[in-house]
Design brief:
Layout: H1 3-10, H2 21-32, H3 46-55, E1 66-72, H4 82-97, E2 104-110, E3 123-127, H5 137-151, E4 156-160, E5 166-167, H6 171-176, E6 182-184, E7 188-192, E8 198-201, E9 222-226, H7 230-240, H8 248-254, E10 259-261, E11 267-271, H9 277-280, H10 285-293, H11 299-308, H12 318-321
Parallel strand pairs: 1-2, 1-4, 2-3, 6-10, 7-11
Antiparallel strand pairs: 4-9, 5-11, 6-9, 7-8
Helix pairs in contact: 3-7, 3-8, 5-7
């Protein structure tokens, strides 16, 4: 991608900056004790208002839940090689098709209709025709929230999912087993597609001081129960889209969701495949360094990974990790 196209693709990111930890802690504590109404209205941002509004409507995903995966996809005009996007998307979708619980659907929002939507009738395309000068992922996520939670609402769970990430084959069955809880991915994997090296992410501990949970690296990290209040849920997820994924747990818990924090790897984040947005912005270096620091070398674990995450064998294998 030349410099001019890159500049256009990264303009107007619209994601809100990280909120101060102390401020979040105070607001969360007040909300926990029901004292949030005491806060001045102008002291809260749009997402915090939407979270507190949703809190009064929360219901669990009872009955026969369906998980909706909302996938914002770049347009062909925004990338150097559309074939790479098609390849990575197909790999992600095949991981969904292999889910042990088939009760899911995926909606892909993009300017370009990808060929991969023909893989399964549960996969549909939401055309994106807004004229946005620059990065449009936030707007696509907001369109997906409106379409999936209001226009075509299905009770169950809702999860933003990037089109190059993979989910564990038991992701949906584990999710549906706890209808009263959302899922926050703490344990997971990161794969450098260029080297085949894999790192495991987990919560920081005394034994692993340099570790970080998966949700701090990747936006494909949280699924929440939906179906009780379409308008409030839509507003919440549209506001959530304006913030980076590091704020997802705070805003979800502010909304009253109970989060199950996974201790077993449930998602896989692929970097350095050639069209990662962070790489094109020149911000992926620290992730590559993390992978090199925490590279998995156990062949049995790597072999199990390729079983648990269908499609990952093309990215990593015990043999490839040795190269």
């Amino acid at each position: 991608m030349d410099a001019e196209r890159f500049t256009q693709a990264t303009k107007f990111m619209h994601e809100q900056t990280q909120l101060a930890k102390l401020r979040r802690a105070v607001i969360a504590r007040l909300a926990h004790f029901g004292a949030a109404p005491l806060l001045p209205r102008n002291s809260l941002n749009k997402a915090e208002h939407a979270a507190l509004a949703l809190k009064t409507h929360l219901t669990s995903a009872k009955g026969n839940p369906i998980t909706t995966f909302a996938i914002p996809l770049v347009g062909a005009h925004q990338v150097s090689d559309w074939a790479v996007i098609e390849e990575t998307l197909e790999r992600s979708l095949r991981a969904l098709i292999a889910q042990s619980d088939p009760n899911w659907r995926a909606v892909i929002c993009s300017q370009t209709r990808p060929d991969a939507i023909t893989l399964d009738p549960r996969i549909t395309h939401l055309p994106f025709d807004q004229n946005i000068d620059g990065h449009d992922k936030v707007a696509k996520l907001q369109s997906l929230a409106r379409h999936c939670l209001t226009d075509t609402a299905k009770p169950g769970f809702f999860m933003p999912l990037d089109g190059d990430d993979l989910l564990h084959r038991d992701f949906t069955i584990d999710l549906h087993a706890q209808p009263d809880k959302g899922l926050l991915v703490c344990a997971g994997y990161m794969v450098n597609a260029g080297t085949g090296h894999v790192a495991e992410t987990q919560n920081r501990s005394l034994r692993a001081l340099g570790q970080k949970p998966f949700w701090k690296f990747c936006g494909s990290c949280m699924a929440l129960p939906v179906g009780g209040a379409p308008a409030a849920e839509t507003a919440f997820f549209q506001a959530l889209a304006e913030h980076e994924h590091r704020l997802y747990p705070y805003l979800a818990e502010l909304a009253g969701f109970t989060l199950e924090r996974s201790t077993a790897a449930r998602a896989l984040y692929v970097i350095n495949h050639g069209e990662n947005f962070e790489s094109r912005r020149g911000r992926g270096g620290f992730k590559q360094r993390f992978i090199e620091r925490f590279t998995v070398t156990d062949h049995e674990q790597l072999s199990q990974l390729t079983i648990d995450f269908p499609g990952s064998s093309a990215l990593v294998s015990p043999r490839k990790a040795d190269l």
